Amino acid sequence: MYDTNKPIDNHCLDEHPLYSSQDKQQVSMSMLRPESSLNHYKQLAVSLAVLALILLAVDIGLGAYYSKLTGGYHTVADISSEVAKLQATYNAAVQSRDEAKNQLAKEISEQQLVKWELEHQTRRSKDYEKHSDKIQMEIAALKSHMPMIREGCRHCLPGWTFMNSVCYYFAFSEALSRRSWQDAREFCKKRGADLAVIDSREKNLAVSNLINSYQDSSRAIVQSGFWIGLRDVEDEGIWKWLDGTRLTEGFWNDGEPNNNGDEDCAATYPRRNMFKAWNDAPCNHDLKWICEMAPRLAS
Protein backbone atom coordinates (compact mmCIF):
# COMPACT_ATOMS: atom_id res chain seq x y z
CA MET A 1 0.00 0.00 0.00
CA TYR A 2 1.24 3.44 -0.82
CA ASP A 3 1.23 6.30 1.41
CA THR A 4 -1.08 8.74 -0.12
CA ASN A 5 0.58 11.59 1.63
CA LYS A 6 3.97 10.82 0.20
CA PRO A 7 4.70 12.53 -3.03
CA ILE A 8 5.29 10.50 -6.11
CA ASP A 9 8.85 10.37 -7.30
CA ASN A 10 9.07 12.15 -10.64
CA HIS A 11 12.24 10.36 -11.40
CA CYS A 12 10.54 7.08 -11.32
CA LEU A 13 7.87 8.33 -13.59
CA ASP A 14 10.38 9.55 -16.16
CA GLU A 15 12.23 6.31 -16.16
CA HIS A 16 9.16 4.23 -16.72
CA PRO A 17 6.73 6.08 -18.94
CA LEU A 18 3.53 4.43 -19.75
CA TYR A 19 3.94 5.24 -23.63
CA SER A 20 6.93 6.07 -25.69
CA SER A 21 6.76 8.73 -28.45
CA GLN A 22 6.78 6.04 -31.11
CA ASP A 23 3.92 4.37 -29.44
CA LYS A 24 2.10 7.69 -29.29
CA GLN A 25 2.63 8.26 -33.09
CA GLN A 26 1.35 4.83 -33.84
CA VAL A 27 -1.61 5.45 -31.65
CA SER A 28 -2.24 8.83 -33.41
CA MET A 29 -2.00 7.32 -36.93
CA SER A 30 -4.11 4.45 -35.85
CA MET A 31 -6.62 6.81 -34.46
CA LEU A 32 -7.01 8.74 -38.02
CA ARG A 33 -10.07 7.83 -40.01
CA PRO A 34 -9.84 6.40 -43.60
CA GLU A 35 -12.35 9.01 -45.01
CA SER A 36 -10.06 11.93 -44.08
CA SER A 37 -7.12 10.46 -46.01
CA LEU A 38 -9.26 9.89 -49.10
CA ASN A 39 -10.45 13.47 -49.08
CA HIS A 40 -6.88 14.66 -48.83
CA TYR A 41 -5.91 12.75 -52.01
CA LYS A 42 -8.94 14.06 -53.85
CA GLN A 43 -8.05 17.64 -53.03
CA LEU A 44 -4.50 17.06 -54.23
CA ALA A 45 -5.73 15.54 -57.48
CA VAL A 46 -8.11 18.45 -58.06
CA SER A 47 -5.32 20.93 -57.39
CA LEU A 48 -3.08 19.18 -59.90
CA ALA A 49 -5.87 19.10 -62.45
CA VAL A 50 -6.53 22.81 -61.99
CA LEU A 51 -2.82 23.51 -62.29
CA ALA A 52 -2.69 21.43 -65.46
CA LEU A 53 -5.64 23.39 -66.87
CA ILE A 54 -3.93 26.67 -65.99
CA LEU A 55 -0.72 25.52 -67.66
CA LEU A 56 -2.71 24.39 -70.70
CA ALA A 57 -4.43 27.74 -70.89
CA VAL A 58 -1.14 29.55 -70.53
CA ASP A 59 0.35 27.34 -73.23
CA ILE A 60 -2.60 28.01 -75.54
CA GLY A 61 -2.34 31.73 -74.83
CA LEU A 62 1.36 31.75 -75.52
CA GLY A 63 0.76 29.83 -78.75
CA ALA A 64 -1.90 32.26 -79.84
CA TYR A 65 0.32 35.20 -78.94
CA TYR A 66 3.22 33.68 -80.84
CA SER A 67 0.94 33.04 -83.78
CA LYS A 68 -0.20 36.63 -83.59
CA LEU A 69 3.37 37.86 -83.44
CA THR A 70 4.24 35.67 -86.41
CA GLY A 71 1.25 36.99 -88.33
CA GLY A 72 2.25 40.53 -87.41
CA TYR A 73 5.74 39.88 -88.67
CA HIS A 74 4.35 38.64 -91.97
CA THR A 75 2.07 41.69 -92.08
CA VAL A 76 5.02 43.99 -91.51
CA ALA A 77 6.95 42.13 -94.18
CA ASP A 78 4.01 42.47 -96.58
CA ILE A 79 3.71 46.17 -95.78
CA SER A 80 7.44 46.65 -96.33
CA SER A 81 7.16 44.86 -99.65
CA GLU A 82 4.22 47.05 -100.67
CA VAL A 83 6.09 50.18 -99.58
CA ALA A 84 9.07 49.08 -101.66
CA LYS A 85 6.77 48.52 -104.66
CA LEU A 86 5.13 51.91 -104.13
CA GLN A 87 8.55 53.54 -103.85
CA ALA A 88 9.63 51.91 -107.09
CA THR A 89 6.41 53.02 -108.76
CA TYR A 90 6.89 56.54 -107.41
CA ASN A 91 10.48 56.65 -108.63
CA ALA A 92 9.35 55.47 -112.06
CA ALA A 93 6.61 58.11 -112.07
CA VAL A 94 9.11 60.83 -111.08
CA GLN A 95 11.47 59.70 -113.83
CA SER A 96 8.63 59.69 -116.34
CA ARG A 97 7.59 63.15 -115.18
CA ASP A 98 11.13 64.47 -115.55
CA GLU A 99 11.42 62.95 -119.00
CA ALA A 100 8.07 64.48 -119.93
CA LYS A 101 9.21 67.88 -118.63
CA ASN A 102 12.42 67.64 -120.62
CA GLN A 103 10.50 66.61 -123.72
CA LEU A 104 8.04 69.47 -123.17
CA ALA A 105 10.89 71.96 -122.77
CA LYS A 106 12.47 70.64 -125.96
CA GLU A 107 9.19 70.93 -127.86
CA ILE A 108 8.61 74.44 -126.48
CA SER A 109 12.10 75.41 -127.63
CA GLU A 110 11.46 73.94 -131.06
CA GLN A 111 8.07 75.68 -131.18
CA GLN A 112 9.73 78.99 -130.31
CA LEU A 113 12.27 78.42 -133.06
CA VAL A 114 9.48 77.69 -135.53
CA LYS A 115 7.66 80.82 -134.37
CA TRP A 116 10.77 82.94 -134.88
CA GLU A 117 11.33 81.40 -138.29
CA LEU A 118 7.69 82.04 -139.21
CA GLU A 119 8.05 85.67 -138.14
CA HIS A 120 11.24 85.89 -140.20
CA GLN A 121 9.58 84.40 -143.27
CA THR A 122 6.52 86.62 -142.80
CA ARG A 123 8.75 89.67 -142.58
CA ARG A 124 10.65 88.57 -145.69
CA SER A 125 7.36 87.98 -147.49
CA LYS A 126 6.17 91.46 -146.57
CA ASP A 127 9.49 92.91 -147.71
CA TYR A 128 9.13 91.05 -151.01
CA GLU A 129 5.59 92.38 -151.36
CA LYS A 130 6.77 95.93 -150.68
CA HIS A 131 9.63 95.49 -153.14
CA SER A 132 7.26 94.06 -155.72
CA ASP A 133 4.82 96.94 -155.20
CA LYS A 134 7.68 99.41 -155.55
CA ILE A 135 8.81 97.76 -158.80
CA GLN A 136 5.26 97.79 -160.11
CA MET A 137 4.98 101.45 -159.19
CA GLU A 138 8.26 102.25 -160.92
CA ILE A 139 7.13 100.33 -164.00
CA ALA A 140 3.88 102.30 -164.06
CA ALA A 141 5.79 105.54 -163.54
CA LEU A 142 8.20 104.68 -166.36
CA LYS A 143 5.31 103.82 -168.66
CA SER A 144 3.72 107.16 -167.96
CA HIS A 145 7.11 108.82 -168.26
CA MET A 146 8.03 107.19 -171.58
CA PRO A 147 6.17 109.68 -173.83
CA MET A 148 7.95 112.56 -172.11
CA ILE A 149 11.29 110.74 -172.40
CA ARG A 150 10.71 110.03 -176.10
CA GLU A 151 9.81 113.65 -176.65
CA GLY A 152 12.75 114.65 -174.51
CA CYS A 153 15.10 112.78 -176.82
CA ARG A 154 14.21 115.35 -179.49
CA HIS A 155 14.50 118.43 -177.29
CA CYS A 156 16.58 117.48 -174.20
CA LEU A 157 19.78 115.78 -173.14
CA PRO A 158 19.69 112.02 -172.43
CA GLY A 159 18.01 111.33 -169.11
CA TRP A 160 16.06 114.61 -169.15
CA THR A 161 12.28 114.94 -169.34
CA PHE A 162 10.40 117.30 -171.64
CA MET A 163 7.35 118.87 -169.99
CA ASN A 164 5.53 122.16 -170.65
CA SER A 165 8.13 123.09 -173.24
CA VAL A 166 10.92 122.83 -170.64
CA CYS A 167 13.62 120.16 -170.07
CA TYR A 168 13.72 118.84 -166.47
CA TYR A 169 16.17 116.58 -164.72
CA PHE A 170 14.81 114.70 -161.67
CA ALA A 171 17.42 113.20 -159.35
CA PHE A 172 15.40 110.02 -158.80
CA SER A 173 18.38 107.64 -158.93
CA GLU A 174 19.56 106.35 -155.56
CA ALA A 175 23.08 106.42 -157.01
CA LEU A 176 22.90 110.19 -156.57
CA SER A 177 23.22 111.07 -152.90
CA ARG A 178 21.11 113.83 -151.44
CA ARG A 179 22.69 117.24 -151.34
CA SER A 180 22.32 120.70 -149.87
CA TRP A 181 20.49 123.39 -151.86
CA GLN A 182 23.76 124.99 -153.02
CA ASP A 183 25.40 121.66 -154.01
CA ALA A 184 22.27 120.67 -155.92
CA ARG A 185 22.40 123.98 -157.81
CA GLU A 186 26.05 123.36 -158.66
CA PHE A 187 25.09 119.96 -160.13
CA CYS A 188 22.57 121.67 -162.38
CA LYS A 189 24.86 124.53 -163.43
CA LYS A 190 27.61 122.09 -164.48
CA ARG A 191 25.14 120.77 -167.03
CA GLY A 192 24.14 124.15 -168.36
CA ALA A 193 20.97 124.31 -166.24
CA ASP A 194 19.76 125.60 -162.89
CA LEU A 195 17.29 124.58 -160.19
CA ALA A 196 13.72 124.40 -161.47
CA VAL A 197 11.41 127.40 -161.49
CA ILE A 198 7.82 126.31 -160.85
CA ASP A 199 5.95 129.54 -161.36
CA SER A 200 2.67 128.31 -162.78
CA ARG A 201 -0.17 125.96 -161.97
CA GLU A 202 0.64 123.78 -165.01
CA LYS A 203 4.28 123.37 -164.08
CA ASN A 204 3.42 122.54 -160.47
CA LEU A 205 0.88 119.86 -161.47
CA ALA A 206 3.27 118.28 -164.00
CA VAL A 207 6.19 118.18 -161.55
CA SER A 208 4.02 116.95 -158.66
CA ASN A 209 2.47 114.17 -160.76
CA LEU A 210 5.89 112.90 -161.72
CA ILE A 211 7.50 112.92 -158.26
CA ASN A 212 4.33 111.40 -156.75
CA SER A 213 4.60 108.46 -159.13
CA TYR A 214 8.16 107.79 -157.91
CA GLN A 215 7.43 108.26 -154.21
CA ASP A 216 8.89 105.64 -151.87
CA SER A 217 6.26 105.17 -149.13
CA SER A 218 8.84 103.65 -146.77
CA ARG A 219 10.81 106.90 -146.66
CA ALA A 220 9.84 109.71 -144.30
CA ILE A 221 8.25 112.70 -145.97
CA VAL A 222 10.96 115.04 -144.69
CA GLN A 223 13.52 113.04 -146.73
CA SER A 224 11.38 112.91 -149.88
CA GLY A 225 11.62 116.54 -150.94
CA PHE A 226 13.22 118.03 -154.08
CA TRP A 227 15.02 121.38 -154.08
CA ILE A 228 13.62 124.03 -156.41
CA GLY A 229 15.09 127.44 -157.36
CA LEU A 230 13.29 129.47 -154.68
CA ARG A 231 14.62 131.10 -151.48
CA ASP A 232 14.33 134.11 -149.15
CA VAL A 233 17.98 134.60 -148.23
CA GLU A 234 18.12 138.33 -148.93
CA ASP A 235 14.95 139.38 -147.09
CA GLU A 236 13.20 137.05 -144.67
CA GLY A 237 9.71 136.27 -145.91
CA ILE A 238 10.31 137.68 -149.40
CA TRP A 239 10.70 134.62 -151.65
CA LYS A 240 12.41 135.05 -155.00
CA TRP A 241 13.25 132.82 -157.95
CA LEU A 242 16.85 132.54 -159.11
CA ASP A 243 16.42 135.26 -161.73
CA GLY A 244 15.32 137.67 -158.95
CA THR A 245 11.59 137.46 -159.73
CA ARG A 246 9.41 137.65 -156.63
CA LEU A 247 7.07 134.75 -155.93
CA THR A 248 3.49 135.61 -156.81
CA GLU A 249 1.77 132.23 -156.44
CA GLY A 250 3.09 129.60 -154.10
CA PHE A 251 1.91 126.06 -153.41
CA TRP A 252 2.80 125.94 -149.71
CA ASN A 253 1.66 123.28 -147.26
CA ASP A 254 -0.52 124.42 -144.34
CA GLY A 255 1.49 126.58 -141.94
CA GLU A 256 4.36 127.01 -144.41
CA PRO A 257 6.66 128.77 -144.82
CA ASN A 258 7.34 129.10 -141.09
CA ASN A 259 11.12 129.66 -141.04
CA ASN A 260 11.45 127.08 -138.28
CA GLY A 261 15.19 126.98 -137.62
CA ASP A 262 16.42 129.41 -140.30
CA GLU A 263 14.61 127.78 -143.24
CA ASP A 264 15.49 129.93 -146.25
CA CYS A 265 15.22 127.46 -149.16
CA ALA A 266 12.12 125.89 -150.75
CA ALA A 267 11.48 122.28 -151.69
CA THR A 268 8.54 120.45 -153.23
CA TYR A 269 7.30 117.16 -151.70
CA PRO A 270 5.19 114.24 -152.97
CA ARG A 271 1.75 114.94 -151.52
CA ARG A 272 -1.69 113.91 -152.71
CA ASN A 273 -2.85 117.50 -152.56
CA MET A 274 -0.52 119.02 -155.12
CA PHE A 275 -1.52 122.53 -154.13
CA LYS A 276 0.11 121.92 -150.71
CA ALA A 277 3.40 120.49 -151.98
CA TRP A 278 5.95 123.10 -150.80
CA ASN A 279 7.86 123.52 -147.54
CA ASP A 280 10.65 125.82 -146.51
CA ALA A 281 13.71 123.99 -145.16
CA PRO A 282 17.25 124.75 -143.97
CA CYS A 283 19.44 125.25 -147.04
CA ASN A 284 22.08 122.85 -145.67
CA HIS A 285 19.52 120.05 -145.43
CA ASP A 286 20.23 117.11 -147.80
CA LEU A 287 17.48 116.47 -150.36
CA LYS A 288 17.03 115.41 -153.98
CA TRP A 289 16.64 118.16 -156.57
CA ILE A 290 15.09 119.17 -159.91
CA CYS A 291 17.11 120.88 -162.65
CA GLU A 292 15.61 122.93 -165.49
CA MET A 293 16.98 124.06 -168.82
CA ALA A 294 15.62 125.42 -172.08
CA PRO A 295 14.97 122.79 -174.79
CA ARG A 296 17.16 122.58 -177.86
CA LEU A 297 15.79 123.01 -181.31
CA ALA A 298 14.42 119.80 -182.89
CA SER A 299 16.41 118.61 -185.93
TrEMBL record:
Write down a Pfam family by its short name. Answer: Lectin_C
Q: Which domain of life is it from?
A: Eukaryota
Q: Return the SMART domains for the record.
A: CLECT
User: GO molecular function of the protein, one example?
Assistant: carbohydrate binding
Keywords, in A-Z order: Disulfide bond, Lectin, Membrane, Transmembrane, Transmembrane helix
- Transmembrane segments annotated in the record for this chain: 44-66
- C-type lectin domain ranges (all copies): 163-292
**Protein name per its UniProtKB record:** C-type lectin domain-containing protein
Q: What species is this protein from?
A: Monopterus albus (Swamp eel)
